[in-house]
Amino acid sequence: MANDRELLNDPRITLMGLLEEAHAALADKTAQQITQNQLATGEFEALLRLARSENHQLRMSDLAAQSGLTNSGATRLVDRLEARGLVTRQTSPDDRRGTSAVLTEPGLEMVLKVLPGHLEIVQSAFLDGIPEASREVFFDTLRAVRNHIRPEAERGAH
């Protein structure tokens, strides 16, 4: 029985619970603001990643890796965005088999429309809860954890 209590009181359970609660709360707040702009959160994330990438484009495989999607999931996402004129596809000049998603001007305009409200929420609901002196260490720690779990997501990331 004592071992059961120790197991149930393992601090890793608390760590995961806190992480999941914080993520869920922040995701709920940002999703409301993003959907008010007729985008799904995954669509906004993809558009934002493209906007922050060199030449506003990413190889489809890199977009998938950064977004935590399968290649087919990224293809379906880009299909939806392409149908709305927010992205286009471009064949890689280096490798005719490789395709990149490229942000269009309307796609960039959409990102710039949604981003100020998104950043306000991230600031007030998330960063304001982290002491300023701890923020750099917090960012470095999150990046280290992400890179440990999904090292492929670092390709082309900013």
UniProtKB/TrEMBL annotation:
GO MF terms held by the record: DNA binding; DNA-binding transcription factor activity
Species this chain originates from: Hoyosella rhizosphaerae
Protein's name in the database: MarR family transcriptional regulator
UniProt KW Transcription regulation keyword: yes
Lineage per the UniProt record: Bacteria, Bacillati, Actinomycetota, Actinomycetes, Mycobacteriales
Key words of the record: DNA-binding, Transcription, Transcription regulation
Gene name of this polypeptide: marR
Annotated SMART domains: HTH_MARR
Coiled-coil annotated residue ranges, if any: none
Sequence ranges assigned to domain HTH marR-type in this UniProt record: 12-147
